[in-house]
Amino acid sequence: MEVDLEVISVAGLTDYIQSLLEDDRILQRVWVTGEVSSLQEHPKGLFFTLSDSDAAIKCVVWGSQKLKLMEQPKRGEQIIVLGSLRVFGKRGEYQLTVVQCLATGEGLQALRYQQLRNRLQAEGLFDVSRKRAIPTHPEIVAVVTSSTAAAWGDIQRTLSQRYPGLTVLLSPAIVQGEEAPNSIVQAIERVNKDGRADVIILARGGGAVEDLSCFNDERVVRAIVESTIPIITGIGHQRDESLADLVADRYAHTPTAAAEIAVPSYTQLVLEHQQRVQHLINSLKNRLSEEFEQLEYLKTRLKRFPETSRQLIQATAKCHLLQQKLIALDPKAVLQRGYAVVRQDNQIIRSTEQVKPEQTLSIQLNQGSLKVKVVEITEK
Q1: Of 246, 244, 266, 265, the residue nearest 144 (C-alpha)
Q2: Which of 109-123, 263-277, 337-351 has the least mean pLDDT?
């Protein structure tokens, strides 16, 4: 009985294994967690072994990459590394070439946070262009927070002091723990469905990083983005920004500061109004003063005008000349020299052809008038 055998060299087998491992897409960029069981510093880089209860893998961080690590490997510590698998044929071994190292626990949480942040940023959710303007003078403000939290009392007090008469609505939510993300989402949706609020304040007082993790939850982030009402966040105290802060239309580091952003200060508004009124009064006074000065200037020019205007002097002389001509042509002046005007039915008689014997005529003298009857007509 004959059996077909395919015989390959050790190098051939190693090359085959190398192609399988190094060409695998997952193994080209893989996260691995384990304990650092051995560690050796070398001029070329850092060599260590990552182990768990069942297996171990050799790792290397080359010198050029060492300073870029967020966490330096330490013997006996649990870490998470990012690397790619490489095969060394001469020794028949494989190892992980590490490009990043994180501590477990907070390190893993930070990794997940960064991955989500990068994805949301790629979607454009942090862009300033998509953020909505906060109303200048809101009439109704909704607050999403715990009804028993100090943040709720701080916000109420700040809003009432800054903007008396404002209507404040509470949409209660759990703001800590596993149930918090869903509760916050429901509270935001409740305000949007109600539709009365002009702006929403999403708030929580200070706390540990893990207590505030719900504001990095993708469900909360997308609820803020999808809200039709502008949202201001006031989460915790001075610290790094949460993802909720990054997508909110405005954000503050405390609930009180968020309330100050939501409404203007009534006292400041009154002061600004008084300043505007005073500015208007001063402007009108200045304008009135300027117009009065201009009027006085024109009056002075008008008084001096007859004396200074050559054209007016010439026009006045011409008027006098014309006046003399009119006087000379005045019929009354002619009558004063002894002449008379003869009329018949208010029509001036200029020729004997216009009258007949026995007609009654009216003769106007310089002083008085006469009624006469034609007794004889002499043709010239």
Answers
A1: 244
A2: 337-351
